[in-house]
Amino acid sequence: MSRIQASSALARFRVLDLSRVRAGPTCARMLADFGADVIRIEPPPGVDPNDAMFAAKRKGGDFQNLNRNKRGLTLNLKRPEARAVLHKLAESADVVLENWRPDVKKRLGVDYETLRKINPRIILASISGFGQDGPYAWRPGFDQVIQGMGGLMSVTGFPNTVPTRAGIAVSDSSTGLYAALGILTALLEREVSGEGQWVHASLLHSQIAMMDFQAARYLVDGQVAGQEGNDHPTSAPMGLFKASDGYLNIGVSGEGQWKDFCTAIGRLDWLERPEFRLNADRVRNRAEINGTVQALFATHTVQHWVQLLNKANIPSGPVYDIPQMFEDDQVRHLGVVGEVDTAQGERLRLITQPVVLERTPASLVAAAPAIGQHSDEVLREAGYADAQIEQLREAGAI
Fold first, then answer.
1. Residue 274, CB half-sphere, CA atoms under 13 Å: how many?
2. What is the pLDDT tens value at each position of the chain, 398 positions in all?
3. DSSP-assigned states of every residue in 165-182
4. Neighbour count for residue 264 (Cβ, 10 Å)
5. 43 within 8 A of 79, measured Cβ to Cβ
6. Cα–Cα distance between 105 and 125 in angstroms, integer?
């Protein structure tokens, strides 16, 4: 079987992916979608006590979406023979990706100092919950815990209610993307220096970085953001409104858009109301202006308002559930959903890569590998004879 190659963009790079759960696989998926030879390394069956749980998840959409376009190799890194295989693979690899706690990588010989002696060009990318050192470095990371500690839950939800988690794994996914950016930056720098380096990203730092707007308001202006529900903290009217047949979001920011909004909906008289005159006035009188807009929006459908407002260059869109989202004309046009076949011939629909390169685009070419699906293939490429591979298997190393 030839290498999986989803694109020519990163085809010259090989990534050894030791990561689990979401942040690491998200990072590796980004690289795999653009053609890197990503080898997903995991323990052989019977080594991990959670095998039964993982086996059930492998066929699910989440695992398939995170691990498409990768090859699969099993290594029992508790065995010295398996660690020797990993080190041999590292000799010609470009990146090793892991999300173990800091002490584990050293114990298994996957720390940067060990890897750089094997291959000075290697890039070790480490993803952790709290960083590679410091008072919390030993703690396990979990997305909702990080959302709480990273401030997100304090600004999510409606005023005077309990802190609320976001509906998606914000810290996990953002850390995976930040780590991918770090890896690509290190690969570019290596073209100049000829040397690899250690790249690390943590869920906590990534989550705080995602607080961007609210964090900067505090650091620079001393303003502590709170829960705003569906309202924008600094502009009005901006947020969720109910039409006669559903919900829509609108965004009216600044005096120019306010004038265009009032013109589009036929309420020029609102421009003369002193409590609505400037954005600061509208924010201060948010409850009144939202109630006035809501009363008007209830008289027509979502489609009516979305079309009317967008023609006036006022951002507006319907609120979809997930099936409706995939049926939207623009979503279909963008090719957000792609198809790929499993080794069993089952056709899967998965999310395509949202970053578009026109000349060397990403693609979906392979479903997530079965456990150890490409073990023999990868080991043969590394120079192992069939007899040696069988010995590794008998020793419980693969």
1. 0
2. 468 899 999 999 999 999 999 999 999 999 999 999 999 999 998 887 776 666 678 888 999 999 999 999 999 999 999 999 999 999 999 999 999 988 899 999 999 999 999 999 999 999 999 999 999 999 999 999 999 999 999 999 999 999 999 999 999 999 999 999 999 999 999 999 999 999 999 999 999 999 999 999 999 999 999 999 999 989 999 999 999 999 999 999 999 999 999 999 999 999 999 999 999 999 999 999 999 999 999 999 999 999 999 999 999 999 999 999 999 999 999 999 999 998 788 899 999 999 999 999 999 999 999 999 999 999 999 999 999 999 999 999 99
3. --SS-HHHHHHHHHHHHH
4. 17
5. no
6. 11
Helix runs in the chain, H state only? 23-33, 51-58, 61-67, 80-90, 102-107, 112-118, 143-149, 170-193, 203-210, 212-221, 254-264, 279-284, 286-297, 302-311, 322-327, 329-334, 375-381, 386-394
Question: Contacts by 391-395 with C-beta closer than 8 Å and gap 24+?
Answer: 392/81, 392/82, 392/85, 395/79, 395/81
Cis link prior to 237 (omega < 30° from 0)? yes
Residues designated as active site = 172
Largest Cα–Cα separation, the chain:
86
- Please check whether residue 200 is in contact with residue 132, taking contact to mean a CB–CB distance below 8 angstroms: yes
DSSP 359-396: SS------PPPPTTTTHHHHHHHTT--HHHHHHHHHTT
- The span from the CA of 278 to the CA of 258, in Å, is 9
pTM of the predicted structure, to 2 decimals: 0.93
Nearest to 61 by CA among 326, 325, 342: 342
